[in-house]
Structure to design on (64 residues):
């Protein structure tokens, strides 16, 4: 059984390129595994998505 931890979706990655991305991912994972900092969860975005607002608002609407 040949299970890979990384999969190249497009193109041909050289062994040096795979080693570099593996080193970066492992360093990032090691820095996050400190355990001292609590998980804050997801914060609320400070902006609104315009496609989720209704296209028409009545002139007497409280939303302006």
């Amino acid at each position: 059984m040949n299970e890979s931890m990384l999969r190249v979706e497009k193109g041909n990655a050289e062994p040096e390129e795979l080693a570099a991305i593996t080193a970066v991912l492992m360093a990032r994972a090691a820095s996050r595994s400190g355990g001292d900092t609590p998980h804050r969860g997801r914060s609320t975005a400070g902006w609104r998505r315009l496609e989720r607002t209704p296209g028409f608002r009545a002139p007497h609407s409280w939303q302006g």
Observations:
- Residues 15-32 form the longest helix (18 residues).
- Helices lie at 15-32.
- The radius of gyration is 23 Å.
- Residues 13 and 19 are 10 Å apart (CA to CA).
